[in-house]
Amino acid sequence: MDLTVLLVKGLIILVIFGITLLIATYSTYAERKVAAFLQDRLGPNRAGPFGLLQPIADAGKMFFKEDFIPAQASKWLFILGPCLAMLTALMSSAVIPFGDSIRLAWDGTNYDIPMQAIEINIGVLYIFGVVSLGVYGIMVGGWASNNKFSLLGAIRAASQNISYEIALGLSLIAILMMTGSLSLRAIVNEQATFFEWNVFTQPLGFIIFLTCAFAECNRTPFDLPECETELVGGYHTEYSSMKLGFYLFAEYINMFVSSAFISSLYFGGYHYPFMNAVHDGLTGSLGEIAGHNIATAIGTVVFFAKIFFFIFFFMWVRWTIPRFRYDQLMNLGWKSLIPLSILNVVVTGAGLLYDIKYTTWLIVVVMVVLALTSNARAPKSQAAPQRA
Amino acid sequence: MQPTQNVLIPEVIQQIPLTYYIIISTALFVIGIIGVLTRRNAIIIFMSIELMLNAVNLLLIAFSSYRSDSSGQVFVFFIMAVAAAEVSVGLAIIVMIYRNTRSIDVGLLNKLKW
Amino acid sequence: MSEFLNQFKQLTATGYLFWVLAILALLSAVWVVTARNPIHSVLALIATFFCLSGHYILLNAQFLAAVNIIVYAGAIMVLFLFTIMFLNLRREDEESKTNLTKMAAVVVGGLLMVMLITIFRAKSAQVPTFNPVSFDSRTGLVENLGSILYSDYILPFELASVLFLVAMVGAVMLGKREAGDRHF
């Protein structure tokens, strides 16, 4: 039996790995299609039907380009940079619960194998560890290139990631307080009923988390580390061939992983309304094992639908909102998001004291009222003055 | 050491005597001391101090795990907190030194003597 | 020695993992101290922290393993890397100390190590081992540490927050450029 569990686990890990890579590959295609749609263009449509083979053609191009290492670069670190970026991006998907469990019958007993690579009781801390390591790939690569623009991009990325990590962590603490566990599966299972999804109990935390996720992935509107107008290409200016491919790929994997985290932390993971009724109906009509497995499969499909929505959201935002200035980025992080997330923690704690789950709506209401009144008082036709 | 049948005890604790952890952390501590004594770059001296702190952390965690006493691990938690505070202030001081002397060689700081 | 070898042969995979992690930790620690380039020192120190986190996981102290990665590798070392990149210390312009000083340092370190190990191995200082009866494998888990931290150690915990506030103010004060200071 041990061997079977090991085999199934290994299979799940391989499948997760494959799915991560596949989704990252097709995110590049989807990004170009979404961009084309938003800009009223056609997008890639030559390679294969609807241009579906475009990512493969891109990968082929990447592989056959000249792999160039600048003469003044420090060679090993130059190679290490993209490897670290890819490694940390791939590591974080290990603790995501993709579905409920697969049920196997063996010698008349049922074994439930959770659809998760590793279930550890410090899942959230694991994510934090991996996320905080993500900056090394960028910093090492940017420094090793021995190029001013790369170094500036790397330093921008590092300071941005460190700053937004704090708000990210603080916004999560409110969820941890409500769940009382650091395990991602426990957090997902806490959101079994629709109106207890954390997005309804923690609206402010969700917005802060989403913003910080954008910043952590270096996506527009926070893509200052690779901002073309100021820094040529940012930290990957000197990279070519598959090393550049690794950096770009790592960005898409990060996007997939953070979408998965957003959906499992705030949108109930593999839960969907009337899930228990569906589960009972399936087990009733198809039998204990097949019914359970099909219910799990439906949950997983729902989870992936949520993930795809958030990947689409990332792209939607990228092609809609212009880039921030760097001081605006830092002001937003340090002067708005961190105080707000601390306030969120305090209000959630006060709510938990009296067993009310929805107290954070209070902050949202107050903020909306403040925003409306301040907008009413602002001068109408005059642009806001730039920072002195 | 007699391996017990208790599966809850981590295998390392069953197989490795605590003395080995003492030796490892002593070695790490001494490497840190040698770093402080031999290098002149303020940042590397600082990193050697971090190494020494981590040697102590390892020892505390090993003892706490072997003896099932959580206090040691709480202590490590505080050491980490203090280390984080120390690094933020220390690196700010190093940056100031660099601004004033254009170098972070501790040998150049002998002006502090008078 | 043969006793040691016999013991070594009886180890399981986890036991070998202990040795691998220990040797890697020591090697990367030596690299921290000897590397000419400060960036290499930083990377070696990160490697050391990873090995130590591995040790913590082997010792079933999962919480501290994660915190070690987050605090040390994720925050402190990024700060170090950041400072080194800002100060542009890639020229290896550190004049090394004389060989005599280095020798003296190594001798002093070696003596200290011998002394410490002798103290630990002394008959009177009996190194305790684990107690199979009262062993609690949940010692290092979050629930346990959290309840102790918020009950027995609540005062130091609160004081640590004051320490952080002071450190933050101090770092901002020190790092702030006054009017007329140059931009590096």
UniProtKB/TrEMBL annotation, chain A:
Role played: NDH-1 shuttles electrons from NADH, via FMN and iron-sulfur (Fe-S) centers, to quinones in the respiratory chain. The immediate electron acceptor for the enzyme in this species is believed to be ubiquinone. Couples the redox reaction to proton translocation (for every two electrons transferred, four hydrogen ions are translocated across the cytoplasmic membrane), and thus conserves the redox energy in a proton gradient. This subunit may bind ubiquinone.
Primary residence: membrane
Organism the protein comes from: Fibrisoma montanum
Enzyme class: translocase
Subcellular location as annotated: Cell membrane; Membrane
GO MF annotations in UniProt: NADH dehydrogenase activity; oxidoreductase activity, acting on NAD(P)H, quinone or similar compound as acceptor; quinone binding
Protein name (Swiss-Prot/TrEMBL): NADH-quinone oxidoreductase subunit H
Enzyme Commission number(s): 7.1.1.-
Segments forming a coiled coil: none
A GO CC annotation given for this chain: plasma membrane
Automatic annotation (TrEMBL), chain B:
Coiled-coil features, chain-numbered ranges: none
One Gene Ontology molecular-function label: NADH dehydrogenase (quinone) (non-electrogenic) activity
Broad class of enzyme this protein falls into: translocase
Pfam annotation, one family: Oxidored_q2
Subcellular localization(s) per the UniProt record: Cell membrane; Membrane
Subunit structure: NDH-1 is composed of 14 different subunits. Subunits NuoA, H, J, K, L, M, N constitute the membrane sector of the complex.
Assigned protein family: Belongs to the complex I subunit 4L family.
Entry protein name: NADH-quinone oxidoreductase subunit K
Protein source organism: Fibrisoma montanum
UniProtKB/TrEMBL annotation, chain C:
Organism the protein comes from: Fibrisoma montanum
Subcellular location: Cell membrane
Keyword Protein biosynthesis in annotation: no
Enzyme Commission numbers on file: 7.1.1.-
Protein name (database record): NADH-quinone oxidoreductase subunit J
Transmembrane segments: 16-35, 42-59, 65-88, 100-120, 153-174
Reactions that this protein is recorded to catalyse: a quinone + NADH + 5 H(+)(in) = a quinol + NAD(+) + 4 H(+)(out)
Its membrane topology: Multi-pass membrane protein
